[in-house]
What we know:
The complex is a heterodimer. Chain A has helices spanning about 1-15, 20-50, 65-70, 95-100, 115-120, 140-160, 185-220, 225-230, 235-270, 275-280, 285-310, 315-335, 355-365, 370-395, 395-400, and strands at about 55-60, 75, 80, 85-90, 105-110, 130-135. By secondary structure, chain A is an alpha/beta fold. In chain A, strands 4-1-5-6 form a four-stranded mixed sheet. Chain A has a two-stranded antiparallel ribbon with strand order 2-3. The radius of gyration of chain A is 31 Å and the shape is elongated. A six-stranded mixed sheet of chain B has the order 6-7-8-3-9-10, with helices on both faces. Chain B has a four-stranded antiparallel sheet with strand order 2-1-4-5. The interface of A and B includes residues 10 and 18 of A.
Amino acid sequence: MRNIMTIIRKEIYRVVSDMRLVVMVFLLPGLSIFLMYTLMGNVMQDQVTAIQEHQIILYERNMPDSLKNQLIGLDLGDDRVLNIEIHEAKDADTVLADRVREGDIDLVLLFDENFEEAILHYQSMALPQLKVFYNYGRQQSNFSYNQVMSVVRAYEESVRISRLEDPEYYFVFHTAFAENTVDERQMAGQGLAMLMPMLIVIFLFAGAMSIGPDAIAGEKERNTFATLLITPTKRSEIALGKVISLSLLSLASAISAFIGIILSLPNLMMLENGAGELNIYRFSDYLSILFVLMATVLLIVGLISVISAYAKTIKEASMLIMPFYFITLIVGIVTSFGAEPNQAFLVHLIPIYGAVNLLSGIFVFDWSMLNLITVGVSSVIYTAVFVYVLNWMFNNEKIMFQK
Amino acid sequence: MNTLQVENIRKTFRLSKKQRKIEQTDLKKKVAVDDVSFTANPGEIFGLLGPNGAGKTTALRCIATLIKPDQGDVYVGDYSVLKESSEVRKNIAFLTNELKLEDHFTPNYLYRYFSRLHGVDETVIEERKERLFKRFGIDRFAEVKVADLSTGMKQKISLAISLVHDPNFIVFDEPTNGLDVLTAKTVTDYLVEMREQGKTVILSTHILSVVEKLCDRVGIIIDGKLKAYDTLENVKKQSSDGELETLFFDFVKESLGEDHA
């Protein structure tokens, strides 16, 4: 035990006493994620704001006054009024189409002459036509179309109702929604459940990948590992010391990334009160997340350590780890964007997948203690297997000394 | 009992395609050490003399438990390298160019780290460190990162660290290689000091003058085989002119002749 502690202390000191590694392992994950996501969020927010604040340029012909009046000064809620400029379309249709394509005009609505009269005398007159020009390849035009057409559809609906003997005939049935069927917390957690488990596992892996190969393959490459092997320290103690220290460092790296995500979340998800979103979780939820993180990091570090012990150089180790990183990436994406969290016991025995699945469950408050324990215990068992293999590898001169 | 006994050890390595090309051979295996036996006694320096690639380092690595002999055994005191490797490691110092120290750490840190791994008491660590660092002139560089030190200083630190547990058996593989005259003398002087303290010292080298100056008994290893093994005086007597150099080159010539036959 004393030797394990000595090795853990040395491995941690190796990282924390090297400013370059401190920045790379602890600071950079959180900072880069925070900056990246904040930037992404801001760009997205700016884009949305720019579209929402865009002044719609509408050209019309024979537009009913009632419709025109509805559009001007239309209340969009949140103290916003539809920003629209309405012009009379005098050009030929082909010219109008060109101008829409070029982006001069957002939307053109050409109503038939006597449009309202035809509506009024619908039984005797032919069906009038509304010709629409818009460019769905341009966001502003698309936005203008949606905003204006929602008013036009409302106008159409009101005409349809007025044609009925009794307006009530329009409705086929009433739909009533029962109250208290939605768990507000669960709803609020949906977004995080989609994003966080995948990011957490990816950052755990990335953290372990940034230090694992150097601590084992690097030491082999630099011939410093043999110096350790000629001490009376048991190989199993070396294996445990390496795995535990790397796990602690990777966990710290992942927590840095986690903090980065949380701080950038309000911007990323464009929430007015992003912190409120996270307030839905209790201390016990955070504790469960931390527990899953610890279990998963052990598993990932165990795997990376075995690969690093097998590799002759850091470069080879990084290359061999890559396929496992991609598998983790795919598992993360599939689980996060897949169906609801799987509650089956056996699922939680699958390395990585079980953890991502459980994390998704925790974020939407849909998980069980049994599954949490399953993930924890299975991860410890897998890690024990990795440590056993590592111990065997450290004892194998072909693996440790062959150049 | 502080005798180190090497008993009929044999070690073969599988040769990769690349290695076969370099060594210009079709053989898939190379016998690095072939049925080698010798004994090193307390209070003497045993020299293992041989040209590069003769199998000296492989034999010493077997003694230090880094690799296992395919056959035979080595007894370091009462402990077998095959069955009680951990006990062997507690009692042996092994110094070779292939064992490096991590560049990032200072001599102070590394000394304490390896002392703890050897289970040395904290008070003893400091007292012994002070003595060894002073003896090798490391004390002034104790807080300088290994990366920033000269090759000679690194070698002296490796030497001090190999001795953290004050072992009874000292196995040094070409300890003066690449060192300047002054540093080399510090190392050889210390070997003599350890002999005087009654330690069992094994020294491998390809430098004849080192053997003649330091060793009490000597083994000449060529192509993995021990060609001569006796006191320095008796080994010299096997030569036509009583010179170690003549005997050594005769063995090398003989080996080259065998290769070409």
